[in-house]
Amino acid sequence: MPTGPTVSVVIPCLNEEEAISACVASAVEALARTRLSGEVIVVDNASEDRSAELAAAAGARVVFEPRRGYGSAYLAGFLAATGDYVVMADADLTYDFAEIPRFVERIEKGADVVMGDRMDNIEPGAMPWLHRYVGNPLLSGLLNVLFRTGVRDAHCGMRAFRRSVLPQLDLRTTGMEFASEMVIRAAKANLRIEQIPITYHPREGESKLSSFRDGWRHLRFLLLHRPTYLFVLPGLVLLILGLIASAVTIGQIAIFGRGWQIHTLIAGSLLEIIGVQVIGLGLCALAYATYFMSDDERWFNLMRARFRLEHGLALGVLIGLSGVGLGADVVVSWINSGFGPLAQEEQALLSATLLIIGVQVFFTSFLLSILGLRREERR
Ligand SMILES: Nc1nc2c(ncn2[C@@H]2O[C@H](COP(=O)(O)OP(=O)(O)OP(=O)(O)O)[C@@H](O)[C@H]2O)c(=O)[nH]1
Ligand SMILES: [Mg+2]
């Protein structure tokens, strides 16, 4: 009777009757070869072929998940798993189940999550050109710019983790973006992530991956979980460009050997208003992420420790009043000229811009405060 840790091999399966028997058999064999006891769980994602029947015949415990999706399948599998360690791999023979002991060994030595890295060992025909040279590098690259996980092949389907970290991972996504979610959550939770090189083989049976739909789901997931990059930085860029355009016009600074007038100022105002709007939305998104999704954005936390609702309101009033002042000045000079023709477009535009931004800042401050009303601060 083995007394060491136990392993659950979880295999998500949607119509994989060409490969599922061989996958289960090699997983069972890999476990038998190790000193570890374990189980092989196949999550049948409402397959319309004989996958479930074949998986059971090959020695797997079959779990049924009617809600389609790679993530849904894994969530059901993890719930059913009982092992101390969980090893994940596709049901299409692209991954070598004989590698299971290498993954397990890393966890035994202290890793929390072990990721396969296929990048240097992709067999001919295993990964389409579009995924190999465009989708994977772009999405993995962006993932690392946004979340700094250090994981090279963030979409690799063969992985392992200590089952006790599941509450920290708190996985929720239902589709292919589950692959990204797991890596990001592991990095955010400061888990120990290790990578081992593995070989990626050509697939048996038809691929279930839809390049653009699943690629977009990954991209969407990455952006939604990083409001600083989705809103705040683009908003800041717009605002700064707007301020430069306005300064160049008002200061009558010659650039490219020419002066810049009212149309440049209009463009500047436009950029400033949009910029402030987008930054405001980003701050609200960050507040939501911080208060309700346990997000931990350092700069946002520093900011909210320093600034209170009243600071935002005061800033909004100040900006708004300066707009009113400039506008009143235009009206006064119009009255003084006996309601004659006016030529103060620049000042009028500036006044309107400041007033709009003041109102944006004022009410965004309230919204930010509302978002924090029912927050549960983490200790
Ligand atoms: N896409 C997808 N896969 C599912 C679903 N349910 C289970 N799966 C399984 O999840 C695994 C991953 O899907 P694959 O089609 O292999 O996707 P992939 O590995 O990214 O792409 P390939 O390199 O073509 O294999 C396979 O074992 C599928 O059978 C589902 O609803 N959608
Ligand atoms: Mg696959």
Shape verdict: elongated
Cα gyration radius (Å): 28 Å
CATH H level, superfamily name of the largest domain: Spore Coat Polysaccharide Biosynthesis Protein SpsA, Chain A
Strand-and-helix sequence, N→C?
EHEHEHEHEHEHHEHHHHHH
Number of strands: 7
The CATH architecture of the largest domain can be given as Alpha-Beta Complex
Summarize this structure as a short list of keywords or feature phrases.
single chain; 379 residues; alpha/beta; Spore Coat Polysaccharide Biosynthesis Protein SpsA, Chain A; 13 helices; 7 strands; 55% helix; elongated; binds guanosine-5'-triphosphate; binds magnesium ion
Describe the structure concisely.
The protein is of the alpha/beta class and 379 residues long. The protein folds into two domains: 6-224, Spore Coat Polysaccharide Biosynthesis Protein SpsA, Chain A (Alpha-Beta Complex), CATH 3.90.550.10; 227-371, no CATH class.
Describe the structure.
- The chain has 13 helices and 7 strands.
- With 379 residues, it is an alpha/beta fold.
- It has a 7-stranded mixed β-sheet, sandwiched between helices.
- Helix 1 links the parallel strand 1 and strand 2.
- The two termini are 43 Å apart.
- The site of guanosine-5'-triphosphate has 19 residues, from strand 1 and helix 3.
Strand-helix topology:
Elements (H helix, E strand, L loop, with lengths): L5 E8 L6 H14 L3 E8 L6 H7 L3 E4 L5 H11 L4 E4 L11 H9 L4 E5 L11 H19 L11 E4 L3 H4 L8 H11 L4 E5 L13 H14 L2 H24 L11 H31 L5 H9 L2 H28 L8 H27 L8
Parallel strand pairs: 1-2, 1-4, 2-3, 5-7
Antiparallel strand pairs: 4-6, 5-6
Helix pairs in contact: 5-8, 9-10, 10-13, 12-13
The structure holds guanosine-5'-triphosphate (GTP) and magnesium ion.
The site of magnesium ion (MG) has 5 residues, from loops.
